[in-house]
UniProtKB/TrEMBL annotation:
Subcellular location: Cell inner membrane
Originating organism: Candidatus Acidianus copahuensis
Upper classification of the organism: Archaea, Thermoproteota, Thermoprotei, Sulfolobales, Sulfolobaceae
Protein name: Transporter
Predominant subcellular localization, coarse grouping: membrane
Membrane topology listed for this record: Multi-pass membrane protein
Keywords of this entry: Cell inner membrane, Cell membrane, Membrane, Transmembrane, Transmembrane helix, Transport
Segments passing through the bilayer: 6-28, 43-65, 77-106, 113-132, 138-156, 168-188, 251-270, 310-327, 347-364, 384-405
Superkingdom in the source lineage: Archaea
Length: 408
């Protein structure tokens, strides 16, 4: 089996690529994820589904050919993963942030991301304290089936043992998995009330007037408070790609999904899965709780997460200054959905960003993973824990947003 382990600093480069790509997607802007929670804009679902459809067969195809990867599907402890996912989804809907998108938002110059950082570290610290109590141990040990994927069990750093046959069987499963995800990416309309996904828009080369208006609205909130750009700039093409006849620009926006997915496959070959929330537990342990059991386990197992988080921030900063021009210089920019429901008070937004990030990180550490470790890296590996976490996150996210953002 061909294997390789890269030095830690390579994580900065990996994080840079993912941070820049996700910033172009618009994930650094909390309004994007709030609209996802409201089920008004499904771009994240479409892009993740497409990215996984591309990358999962690549991962398991190469594995069947003898390429070794640093597999790390999260353990399936059903109760803890499920409850953690529910808490994570609620916090996501309130704050508009994932653990990784907080670092991207800092790179994009978003003031409320500063509040989210402190909420995230406190949420991670809370789980660190709870972990060594009887309640915490019950959550992680009850109904714990270990690290399993669809079709196999993770038994060693580089080895997933198939339940039947050879690794080629898991590759076959990944092809079926990819077809299902591709159908989601193709048929799920991006906008509530629309009829086409971004992928389908490009293939069919047409949009409804309603979809064009939604694209314009999206471009407005993504660039709100950002840097000016000229008519012939890259930023114009990236932010207003719906208005250009250039197939290159239109397809680039869709191909970002593949770039992210394949970058995670590369990362797994080089060193480890892509994860973001472990850094918050590492910081909480270093700053406040160095002697706690959970901190000790994080210190012993930490990989290049702090490096990849730094790279994520730097990638988003680069993209927001030189490509999309969305850098807001830490002005008081309130997400429109939040503003409509709660007004433009900075204190109110501080509470939402801080409190939502607190819940999100508390849930992430309870479930031993977040949108990066479970949804992106976990679902790419077809980890059953990742699929459970994803379902719990979406259920809680949609329910929370329904009540938090409904009109008075």
């Amino acid at each position: 089996m061909i294997t390789y382990t890269a030095p830690m600093w390579v994580g900065i480069l990996i994080g840079f690529i993912i941070g820049a790509a996700a910033e172009i997607w618009g994930i650094a802007n909390p309004e994007t994820l709030i609209r996802l929670a409201k089920w008004e804009d499904r771009l994240f679902v479409i892009c993740i589904a497409l990215g996984l459809a591309i990358s999962a067969p690549v991962l398991y195809g190469l594995y069947a050919l003898g390429i070794g990867f640093h597999f790390s599907p999260k353990p399936l402890y059903v109760i803890g993963v499920g409850i953690g996912g529910l808490i994570f989804g609620s916090g996501l809907a309130i704050s508009g942030y994932f653990p990784g998108s907080i670092w991207m938002a800092l790179g994009e110059g978003r003031r409320d991301a500063i509040y989210a950082v402190f909420g995230a570290i406190l949420g991670a610290a809370t789980w660190t304290v709870l972990y060594q109590t009887p309640v915490g141990q019950w959550l992680v040990n009850t109904l714990n089936f270990g690290s399993v994927v669809i079709g196999g069990t993770h038994v060693d750093k580089f080895i997933i043992r198939p339940w039947y046959g050879t690794p080629a069987v898991i590759f076959g499963i990944s092809l079926v998995y990819a077809v299902g995800l591709f159908l989601v990416a193709y048929y799920l309309p991006r906008y509530k009330g629309g009829v086409r996904s971004c992928l389908r828009e490009n293939i069919e080369k047409r949009s409804t007037p309603y979809e064009v208006e939604k694209h314009k609205e999206t471009a407005m909130f993504l660039t709100d408070g950002g840097l000016p750009y000229s008519e012939n700039s890259i930023a114009k093409k990236l932010n207003e790609y719906y208005a250009t006849e250039s197939n290159v620009t239109r397809w680039f926006m869709v191909s970002v999904a593949g770039i992210v997915g394949l970058t995670v496959v590369l990362e797994m070959f080089l060193h480890q899965i892509f994860g973001e929330s472990t850094t918050d537990s590492w910081l909480a342990g270093m700053l406040f709780l160095p002697t706690f059991k959970y901190s000790q386990s994080v210190f012993a197992g930490i990989g290049w997460e702090p490096f990849s988080d730094i790279g994520t921030l730097m990638g988003a900063l680069f993209a927001s200054v030189f490509l999309t021009r969305r850098f807001t210089s830490f002005r008081n920019i309130i997400p429109p959905s939040w503003s409509i429901r709660f007004g433009n008070s900075q204190i109110t937004r501080f509470l939402g960003s801080f409190g939502g990030a607190y819940l999100m990180l508390f849930g992430a550490r309870m479930a031993d993973g977040c949108a990066s470790g479970h949804i992106l890296s976990g679902d790419l590996q077809m980890a059953i824990s990742g699929l459970e976490f994803t379902a719990a996150v979406f259920a809680a996210m949609l329910i929370t947003a329904h009540y938090v953002y409904r009109k008075r």
